[in-house]
Amino acid sequence: MKRAFKILLFLACSIVFLEAVEAKFPVPKIEFNPKSMICPFTEQKINVDGADSEAVWDKAPWSDTFVDIEGAAKPLPYLDTKVKMLWDNEYLYIFADMEELHLTAKLTQRDDIIFRDNDFEIFIDPDGDTHNYYELEINALNTVWDLLLLNPYRDNGQLAYDSWDIQGLKTAVKLNGTLNDPNDIDEGWSVEIAIPWKVLEEGTTKKCPPRSGDVWRMNFSRVQWDFDIQEGSYVKKDSPEHNWVWSPQGLIAMHYPEMWGFVHFTKRVNVSSVDLSISDADKNKWILRQFYYAQKEYWEINHKFAMKIDELIKLFPNLKPYKGLVLLQSTESLYEFIYKPDNVVYHLTQDGLIWETEN
Ligand SMILES: *[C@@H]1O[C@H](CO)[C@@H](O)[C@H](O)[C@H]1NC(C)=O
Ligand SMILES: *[C@@H]1O[C@H](CO)[C@@H](O)[C@H](O)[C@H]1NC(C)=O
Ligand SMILES: *[C@@H]1O[C@H](CO)[C@@H](O)[C@H](O)[C@H]1NC(C)=O
Q1: Closest residue CA from atom 13 of ligand 1
Q2: pLDDT value at residue 15
Q3: Looking at ligand 1, which atom is closest to the CA of residue 190?
């Protein structure tokens, strides 16, 4: 009985997050179970006007209602947010619907730091290698901040290109209420966005437009501030913002692309026949990612990376050796993990980049 329990426990823990005592390097504190959603193909032209009035939008399934970025440990957002998507041969379309009692926005310049207003945000890492990803933020004035990140801030950070712009981007917002007027209660706002494949294809080896059946890593989030009403104006409260997301990160940081959701592009008419389960490849990458987190923590403590997997396992009792997983090291600051569970080889290097090759 006891043994059976242990085996069960082992299975349940085989893909868990690292549980380092007093870890210095932040890791997601939730199970690896990112959300999935379907992005159907549209034959109908989409007019980007902020409204989902084209009939084809009714065929795009809504995402789950957004949750707190830290996951189920935190209360549900007090305003609903949901999103849906479509694609055709020219554009990826995103539509977000947001409940809002007090519509407010101030920023008007392209590439302003839009999350200082309430906003809606999109993150796209087409190939899921956690490098070369796109971010777009938009407020209720239809002001956009679009940027390109060569890698997450945790991996030699600061490689964010604000001056990079999405050529041919189309955005529109539709307000159901009055902007910057605290004298009434508003209903909400919606955002409609079209991103040309021509721009998205530059940072990835994935096909653009995708093939039916392709899966991309993406996430959506909504930053929401609390406001006081003073002398007829909204004044931001001196309290941290809310971060409401489609797929919870398990920590307060969006720049963990391995936690983003899975978007399934399809040309199928019956979209419910698409298999949304997480692939073995993504589960295997998540295993490697645990060793990356462990190396990050090891670096925090020792200012160099571990040379042997045993050193990491000593530091993190939750980590266990995997057959076919080896650590190659050339210097104290360079390493590569290689994992060969089957006929695919997964690679992860010290800069967080993850990719696969054939065995
Ligand atoms: C505005 O919100 C109200 C209440 O939710 C809804 O009945 C109405 O249809 C909305 N108007 C528009 C233009 O979306
Ligand atoms: C992204 O997506 C994941 C998976 O659905 C979700 O858990 C997470 O909170 C989302 N938010 C961010 C900021 O990545
Ligand atoms: C759509 O696919 C689902 C799941 O495969 C199936 O149960 C359902 O019968 C299909 N619907 C139609 C109209 O074919």
Answers
A1: 176
A2: 41
A3: 14
